[in-house]
Amino acid sequence: MNRKKAIITVSLFFLLFGCGTDSNTDQNKQDTPITGSNKLIDQQPSADAKEMINKHEEISAIKAVNNSETIVVAVKVNHSERFTLKSLRKKMEKELKDSFPKLDVEFSTDLKIFLELEKLEEEIQADHFTEDKLDKGLKEIIKLSKEQT
Amino acid sequence: MTDKKKKKLPPDALKYQAFQQQREVKRPLLKNCLKAFLVGGFICLIGQLISTFYIYYFNFTEQTAGNPTTATLIFLTMLLTGFGVYDRIGQFAGAGSAVPVTGFGNAVISAAIEHKTEGFILGVGGNIFKIAGPVIVYGVFSAFIVALIKTIILEWGGF
Amino acid sequence: MIFFWAFVIGGLICVIGQIMFDVFKLSPAHTLTTLVVAGAILDGLGLYEPLIDFAGAGATVPITSFGNSLVHGAMAEAEKHGIIGVITGMFEVTSSGISAAIIFGVIGALIFKAKG
């Protein structure tokens, strides 16, 4: 019985440490800026935002998408820094708001927002992606990030 | 095992055994804590898996995934409690099965099942919060005090 | 990583509960009540949210997070509507645990047989 318990415990720890190797290590910290064939939707502010936020060591990955009025940025923070997530969030949000005074800045550390922005970034590369779809996509993501329950 | 031994041993030895059992230190604290750690941690791990699943495959964010996760865990608790498995886990793990929200669910659901012979209104309805009641009552009351103090401090200290 | 810390922190909170069982000889009801109150106080001090950010389900699954959610609901409503919000807002963020427990309790009573 003791040996059985030991085996289960050890294998459980291997499972945990195995899952511990972040999928983040696969992603490039330096995300390539979006230069889709769609020239109507200028993603330069997003590229700038990414460069700016990347300078912070605590950030392991970043996604950003913008339209003419809004920019939405989502980051993944290194796990050991997550204790101070609140203050990091405030700091980076302020930085973005100062750098883009003409745009509405939405900043999130939420995993879901990150995943949704990732999807949106890929969709932008597609040829038939219109400005309307971008606006709609961004609006939905912002709505999602505001949900409390 | 001690019963078999009692039959073969002379009365003096029996007396000594009784004396020894009296002085024995009970409650293996370290072992209990280890068991609680493993089971409690495991239940939280399951919760994290469920939460991550909801974030990836459904339209939940980190903020909003907590509620469906809790509901799912309590659903699973209903199955475990109904089949008598949760009580066995509880005997092994002590606080490891009582402290997570599944323990709360088990307290409510096992009370409901146990008292159904007394009728649904008075039996189930009346007894369902025997153990869970104090948790809700003092949870709400302490949250009230904390939030009250904090709000007052903010209003005085802020502006 | 979050899976590892969910396991560890969740386990540690349960160990605290076990110590309350074995060393302080508290009953389950007393222990759980104390832990919920502790969760509420920790959130008042601003210490519970960082724990949730770090350990995920390791901090949201134990019963302590119930106290944390209640304070959150109360504070959120108080910010909007003033001090009366402390009373009206409490259950806004956290109905899931209690609702689910009641609903599955009744369903359980309907489906399962009582054991001796």
Automatic annotation (TrEMBL), chain A:
This is Sporulation protein. It comes from Oceanobacillus arenosus.
From TrEMBL, chain B:
InterPro entries: Spore_V_AC (IPR014203), SpoVA (IPR005562). The chain crosses the membrane at residues 36-57, 69-86, 135-154. The keyword Transmembrane helix applies. Keywords: Membrane, Transmembrane, Transmembrane helix. The keyword Membrane applies. PANTHER family: STAGE V SPORULATION PROTEIN AC, STAGE V SPORULATION PROTEIN AC-RELATED. This is Stage V sporulation protein AC. It comes from Oceanobacillus arenosus. The lineage of its organism: Bacteria, Bacillati, Bacillota, Bacilli, Bacillales.
From TrEMBL, chain C:
It comes from the Bacteria. The keyword Transmembrane helix applies. The keyword Cell inner membrane does not apply. Pfam families: SpoVAC_SpoVAEB. The chain crosses the membrane at residues 6-24, 83-112. Signal peptide: none annotated. Keywords: Membrane, Transmembrane, Transmembrane helix. InterPro entries: Spore_V_AE, SpoVA. NCBIfam families: spore_V_AE. This is Stage V sporulation protein AE. It comes from Oceanobacillus arenosus.
